[in-house]
């Protein structure tokens, strides 16, 4: 059994999708980041970085429990555990390159674009422009990559598509100002529609919906989500 520490945000959603695709047995452990539950000692013992997602695999290597944190590490770990969604062996260099492109580029710049455009109490023009343009640049790279390819690795649907899907699902927040932000990226739009049509996506979107996560963006939430903005007491 896998314990899946979850909050309904892009990175945990990637893992939810892979778990649903593989059919691995798992149980959801809600962690309400707007209440600061990610900073509890019990969770920090699983992920010292205090971020979601994380998993504990009760049947890890050698049969011992294994913790894994960071969405890309979890995707790679579970794909290797099941031997699925990794593409062909000869494509592994490309797979790793694009997985880390998403992990170090698309994800962080998308997250910062959301933060400065929608969440920051002050919205400095330089930061808003910087992260919006970088998000658009990463979208343009994906758009080019998907030219003539059904999926990011080629013909095979892999963890690359699940990883990118988690963020492209939030394109309306990354690129606000349009009800149809993917119109400028027809290849991404076509790819996103194909991935979203998979039955596992519908199941992944239901993960955690039986839990009432906090929605308010109040002072408690700001301190929980952005603790480095506040001096230590």
Summarize the model shown.
Helices cover 50% and strands 8% of the residues.
How is the topology of this model organized?
Layout: E1 2-6, H1 10-22, E2 26-30, H2 41-44, E3 54-57, E4 66-69, H3 71-82, H4 92-119, H5 125-145, H6 159-168, H7 171-174, H8 186-196, H9 199-204, H10 219-225
Parallel strand pairs: 1-2
Antiparallel strand pairs: 1-3, 3-4
What does this molecule look like?
- The chain has 233 residues and is an alpha+beta fold.
- The protein folds into 2 domains: 2-84 and 203-229, 3-Layer(aba) Sandwich (Glutaredoxin), CATH 3.40.30.10; 89-197, Glutathione S-transferase Yfyf (Class Pi), Chain A, domain 2, CATH 1.20.1050.10.
- The chain is built from 10 helices and 4 strands; from the N terminus they run βαβαββαααααααα.
- Strands 2-1-3-4 form a 4-stranded mixed β-sheet, with helices on one face.
- Strand 3 and strand 4 form a beta hairpin.
- The radius of gyration is 18 Å and the shape is globular.
- The relative contact order is 0.16.
- The model has no long low-confidence stretch (mean pLDDT 96).
- In the sheet with the most strands, the strands line up as 2-1-3-4
**Total tally of structural domains:** 2
- In terms of DSSP E residues, the strand content is 5-15%
Q: How far is the N terminus from the C terminus?
A: 39 Å
Mean pLDDT: 96
The CATH top-level class label of the largest domain: Alpha Beta
SSE-based structural type: alpha+beta
Organism: Xanthobacter tagetidis
InterPro entries: Glutathione-S-Trfase_C-like, Glutathione-S-Trfase_C_sf, Glutathione_S-Trfase, Glutathione_S-Trfase_N, Thioredoxin-like_sf
Keywords: Transferase
GO molecular function: transferase activity
């Amino acid at each position: 059994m896998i314990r899946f520490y979850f909050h309904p945000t892009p990175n945990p959603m990637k893992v939810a999708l892979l778990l649903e695709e593989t059919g691995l047995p798992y149980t959801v452990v809600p962690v309400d980041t707007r209440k600061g539950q990610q900073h509890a000692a019990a969770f920090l013992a699983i992920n010292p970085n205090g971020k979601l997602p994380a998993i504990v695999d009760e049947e890890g290597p050698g049969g011992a429990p294994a913790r894994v944190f960071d969405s890309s590490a979890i995707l790679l770990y579970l794909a290797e555990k099941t031997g699925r969604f990794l593409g062909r062996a000869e494509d592994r260099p490309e797979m790793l390159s694009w997985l880390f492109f998403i992990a170090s580029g698309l994800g962080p710049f998308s997250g910062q674009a959301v933060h400065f455009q929608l969440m920051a109490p002050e919205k400095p023009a330089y930061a808003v422009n910087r992260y919006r343009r970088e998000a658009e640049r990463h979208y343009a790279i994906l758009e080019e990559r998907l030219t003539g390819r059904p999926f990011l690795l080629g013909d095979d649907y892999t963890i690359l598509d699940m990883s990118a899907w988690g963020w492209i699902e939030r394109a309306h927040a990354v690129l606000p100002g349009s009800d149809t932000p993917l119109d400028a990226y027809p290849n991404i739009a076509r790819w996103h529609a194909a991935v979203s049509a998979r039955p596992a996506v519908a199941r992944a979107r239901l993960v955690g919906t039986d839990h009432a996560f906090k929605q308010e963006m109040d002072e408690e939430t700001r301190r929980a989500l952005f603790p480095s903005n506040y001096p230590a007491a």
